[in-house]
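Notes from the 1:1 (GR / supervisor)

We went over the backlog. Supervisor wanted to see one worked example end to end before approving the batch request, so GR pasted a single chain during the call. The sequence is below; no edits were made to it. Supervisor asked that the structure be written out right there so they could see what the output format looks like.
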Amino acid sequence: MLLQSFDIGGAETHVLELSLELEKQGYEVAIASNGGVFEEKLEGSKVQHYRIPLHNTNPINIIRSYFTLNKLIKKEKFDIVHSHTRISGFLTSLLSNKNTKFLSTVHLNFKTSFPYNLFTRWGEHAICVSPDIREYVIENYKFNSYDTSLTINGINTETFQKTEKSKELIDDLNIDINKKTIVHISRIDKGPADVAFQLLDIARELDDYQIMIIGGGNEFDKLKSLSEKKNEELKRTAIILTGGVTDIARYINLADIFIGVSRAALEAMACEKPVILSGYQGHLGILAQDNLENAFESNFTCRGLELPTTEKLLDDIKGIAGHAIAAVLRSFQSPSALGSSSRNDGGGSSWVRDVIKEKYSVKQMTASYISAYETILAKRISMIGYYGYKNAGDDIIMQIIINNIKAISKSKITVFSYSPAETAKRSDVNSVYRFSLWGIIRTLRKTDVFIVGGGSIFQDITSSKSLYYYVFFMLLAKFFGIKIYIYANGIGPVLSKVNGRLLRFALNRADFITLRDENSFGLIKPLVERPKLVLQTTDPAFQLEKGASENAFNLGRKYCVLALRNIKNSAEVFEKLANVINETAKKHDLTVYLLNMQTYDIQSSIEISGNIKNSIIIGSHLSTDEILALFHEAEFAISMRLHALILSSIADCIGTSISSDVKIESFSKILEQGFLTPDFTENQLKLNIQDMIDLKEENKLKLKERLLSEKEKTKIDLELLEEILND
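Structure output shown during the call:
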């Protein structure tokens, strides 16, 4: 844990409570700071404290801190370095390495203008103490939701509970027991001390009160001087300054009214004190059940609300006094809007204390941190494939692999995509532009497992550039010492001998290879020097379930689905297809839906639609569930793309494929679905369609058996993935 100092303060108390609870749960914890009064709180625990001058931006201290931290991290071999301030975050970012994970807790909004933005580094994961801070981090530092999480200010309810006022403190602080006491806790620095100075301004109006201000900072001497003058002016001890103290609970229990924000306000709530939420970032006023949601939104900091004024503070203090403090306390003990778990147990428990118990316990806070730690300690995965091109088949494969990873571990996933923003938003992962060499290199340097797949990406029939692209990044990953997993790929055709030798060289650098069809398996197994690493599985899409999508479409008509693409001699193929489909549609009263599995397919649909009566083009915008639903209600399907064949089969739709692609022919045989080459005759297609209609139920039974077999094969990749991620 890294922070500036270990004196009185919200972040410091946060770190103290977190560190002690982590130690209780079996973690080895160390704290590094410039030191402070909280060091004594570590006595009796195994939490170590190292003094490092992290408390300011003095260049000498920054340099000393850098070298001291570097030495400490190397010596102790920490698994995680957890920063709680901007200075320590910046230094740790310079020292981060593959073996030590770096993350930060963001306790407040920092300036994002130049040059502050150059020195703000949150590491691999940002833990935010409120939703508004999380939004700030995502918006200003280009984090996605996957790299951020929420925590709370955990309050130790055993320490902070209602007790009698300490007679010892009353005597030591010269408190007038005939007056009510207002307690305000804050860091006495420029900005945070605004409310403390405002309380001095209204002291004259509060004859029945003493004001106790707790905290230290660089404005303390100024506040002390003004307080002494105010007391002389009023001829009584109206203001009591304590400086920094460690036994906060005893001081809070002196309060008749508490004024403050954030952790201090939560601690006062745990002690069942009337609370006025007011701080330098905003003013909410008297905390009540009807404004509790407003307090939750900013984590009790009042960020974004109107700023405090002396008039607002005075009105709220008099408002509580006007209703009598005893009456306010009784209202705090009224039944809570939180539900049955909140109670008036007759022992002094109030709804404000119940809020703390239910939402702000130290154990809940610690659990949120442990979850974040597990996330960054998990394997870091990078994925490459034909992703982000609006190709339904490849996007389905990508999403299934991502879902599989998330089901097994909390691994951080980065996808190299043609459309990184869309991929990141859709799949809740990191994403890097697939042609950003520096972005990919930067990601690979911190990657543990490099997943290549799926689809038929190792081929040169369309272009050798694609093959060179994937081979290059495989070899680069191996250069960085990363495990390479070729996931359920189809291989070939590879026509060039040079390309074949290059592919063989690359494949022999992979650690794990699974192939989705028998042809690919037979082609590759003899080429790989360690054949035990080559396994035959199937296409990941067979993991899909038709599920609740069955009735998603209610088109109110009978129809068939054509999923077409441009191939050699498309015009001739489409002419024959249109003739047969027109005759079939007329005979069986069918509407014809032209489904586009990829953006480029729209041209093929437009080309044939002019020759097919009663045809409707469906764009490439459908979700996977919607595609399955469309196929499920269809009388039959004709596919020219592999994943149209697979999805129609999963949806219990009998189909025929038209292609010269060996992978489509292979899966057509596996599924016992119809298959024709592009040189088919119209009569062959007519007979094929007639069989699909006449033998529909019989064919569905066969298809069901074949699907179960393919679904079973997907477990091979699942088991292998689990082994890799848990290694």
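Supervisor's comment: The radius of gyration is 34 Å.
Batch request approved.
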